[in-house]
Every structure is written in C-alpha cells, then in structure tokens.
C-alpha cells in the first residue's frame, strides 16, 4: 500500500467514494477538514498555518465558519474531523459526549469594543443600546450572552449577531454602539478601525466562574493595543483543538506531534498574549479528555 492509501486507511476513509456515516454531503472523502472560524480571526489564521504543516498525506483543508458553535456542529455532522473551539463552548449546554482534545492552543480575549468618543466606560453603561455579540455560530455569541447576564443587562440591550467585518463597519457607521469579539490581540480587523477602545470585563469574572466554572480567567490586554494608553483587564477563554473519539489514534498523534514540533511556525500575528504551544500547556485542556492518540504522543514527547 502506498503512503497516501495508508493515511486514508488511518482516517477510516476509502480511496474513492464516501462511507455514508463518515462524510457530509459533498465532502471529499480523502481530506481532513479542519473547522476554523472567520477570515481575519485567530482561528482561521491558526488553522491555515496548521493545515500547511500537517503531514501532506492527510490533505488537511481549512473550513471557514462562524466560529466555535458552528465548528462543533460540523464535528457532530461529520462535516469536519478536527475543529477549534472555545473551552466554554466545548462544555456548553449540549456537549458532544465523545468530544476529545488534541491540545490547548491559544488564549482568546473577550474584547468589548466601543468607539473612542463613546461615553460608556463600563459594561453597564450599554443598557438600552445596540451591541453585536458576534455571528450566531460563534463562541462570542455564547460568551457574550453570559457576559450580559453577569452584567445584569440580559434583555436590556438590543442584540445583533454580525460577523466581525460587518460588525466593525456597523460600529464605525454608528449602527451599533459596541461589538463583542472573541479572538487574539490585536485582531487585525479591529486594529485597522479608527479610534476605538475596549471596555474592561474582568469585574464580571467572579459571576461568570460561579455560574459556568473555571473556563474563564482574567486576561490583561497590553498597553498600546488598539491605541490604549493603559492595560485593559478583560476575560480570557482557552482555545482547544478538538476531534471526536473515533479519529484514529495515529492521525491524532500525527497532529499532536505537529503542534509540538512546529510550534514556532504556528504563531499567528494576533498573539500578543499568552502562547500555549508547548507540551506542558498543550495538555491543560480545561477538563476535556485528551484523545488517546494525542495522550500517547505527549507521553512519548515529554514522558
């Protein structure tokens, strides 16, 4: 058997055709779709770097999506074999029972953005106003809803669900008063906006953790990001690279070894904050079990 046929066998896929339970409609049978996120965001950039460095025989392909929730739906349907997700989405209201982690990669920052001339200084100041909480399938839509509850604003703001580029335009055009984005800092789309700033969110951390557990942590946005003259205390959520338990061990191990061995080449521009691509932190998957193939690879690499 040639190398490509061997890798297809590891994926559980035939060299031609498509097993009914293993592929979404129209999904090529000899690819490894990686569910990512919106163009311009950390997920898409990271997935693009990763796919280019995985074993070529796996034929990894980046799938643009609205974000974490959409990615988990693709895993559920078989439209993706690997996906990126926020830790809070992975442990949401309807978790996949066989969801497994390949590693914890980067930290996402919850970024509540307003125009620099806006009078709002705190989340509570947005009462009665219009806020975009990210695309409907994004992790920001989940995290953002929880932020509103923690801030006592549930039902007291008009919520829109816009993709990042559309939300940024709407903010500049004053069609929305604020946008919530979950991603790296600085996110390039936001960095290009004229005169914006972030509202601090860390004051909501206690309420969020009490309601939803320790997936949330304080994350400082450094001085200078988006022109800020001071550090802004916001909330961080771990990004996980995940799959389902049925992904063959050898494929999971191959992906995991790439995360470790090619770490320096997997750094998107928007990662001013904490970098997680080393063995010690990759295994900190916020309670989600590691895939056995990934666990074996980490043991081989680090003992």
User: What is the count of DSSP helices, taking H or I runs of 4+ residues?
Assistant: 11
Helix content: 25-40%
Characterize the largest beta sheet: strand count, sense, and whether it forms a barrel: 10 strands, mixed
- Rg, rounded, reads 19 Å
Q: What is the H/E order? A: HEHEHEHEEHEHEHEHEEHHH
Compact description:
This protein is of the alpha/beta class. The chain has 11 helices and 10 strands.
Please provide a written account of the structure.
The chain has helices spanning about 5-10, 40-55, 70-75, 85-90, 140-150, 165-170, 190, 205-210, 250-260, 280, 290-300, and strands at about 30-35, 60-65, 80-85, 100-115, 130, 160, 180-185, 195-200, 215-220, 230-245. It has about 300 residues and is α/β, with parallel strands linked by helices. Strands 1, 2, 3, 4, 5, 6, 7, 8, 9 and 10 form a ten-stranded mixed β-sheet that branches. α9 (about 250-260) crosses α11 (about 290-300). About 50% of the residues are buried.
Ordered list of secondary-structure elements with their pairings:
Elements: H1 3-11, E1 32-35, H2 42-53, E2 60-63, H3 68-77, E3 82-86, H4 87-90, E4 99-115, E5 130-132, H5 139-150, E6 158-160, H6 164-172, E7 178-183, H7 188-191, E8 196-199, H8 205-212, E9 216-221, E10 232-244, H9 249-261, H10 279-282, H11 292-302
Parallel strand pairs: 1-2, 1-3, 5-6, 5-7
Antiparallel strand pairs: 3-10, 4-7, 4-8, 4-10, 9-10
Helix pairs in contact: 9-11
Task: Spell out the key features of this protein.
disordered N terminus; single chain; alpha/beta; about 300 residues; about 30% helix; globular; 10-stranded mixed sheet
């Amino acid at each position: 058997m040639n190398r490509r046929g061997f890798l297809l066998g590891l994926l559980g896929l035939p060299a031609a055709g498509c097993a009914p339970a293993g592929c979404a409609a129209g999904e090529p049978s000899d690819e490894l779709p990686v569910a990512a996120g919106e163009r311009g965001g950390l997920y898409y950039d990271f997935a693009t770097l990763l796919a280019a460095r995985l074993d070529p025989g796996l034929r990894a392909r980046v799938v643009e999506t609205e974000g974490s929730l959409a990615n988990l739906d693709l895993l559920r349907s078989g439209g993706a074999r690997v996906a990126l997700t926020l830790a809070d989405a992975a442990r949401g209201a309807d978790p996949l029972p066989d969801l497994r982690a390949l590693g914890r990669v980067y930290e996402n920052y919850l970024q509540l953005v307003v125009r620099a001339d806006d009078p709002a200084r705190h989340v509570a100041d947005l009462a009665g106003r219009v806020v975009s909480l990210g695309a409907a399938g994004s992790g920001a839509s989940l995290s953002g809803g929880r932020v509103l509850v923690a801030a006592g604003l549930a039902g007291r703001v008009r919520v829109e669900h816009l993709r990042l580029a559309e939300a940024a335009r709407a903010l500049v055009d004053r069609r929305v008063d604020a946008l919530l984005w979950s991603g790296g800092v600085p996110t390039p789309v936001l960095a290009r906006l004229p005169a914006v700033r972030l509202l601090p969110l860390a004051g909501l951390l206690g309420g969020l953790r009490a309601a939803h557990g320790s997936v949330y942590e304080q994350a400082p946005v450094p001085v200078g990001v988006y022109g800020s003259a001071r550090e802004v205390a916001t909330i961080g959520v771990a990004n996980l690279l995940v799959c389902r338990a049925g992904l063959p061990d050898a494929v999971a191990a191959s992906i995991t070894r790439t995360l470790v061995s090619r770490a320096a080449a997997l750094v998107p521009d928007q990662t001013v904050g904490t970098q997680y691509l080393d063995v010690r932190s990759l295994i900190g998957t916020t309670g989600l079990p590691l895939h056995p193939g990934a666990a074996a690879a980490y043991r081989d690499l680090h003992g």
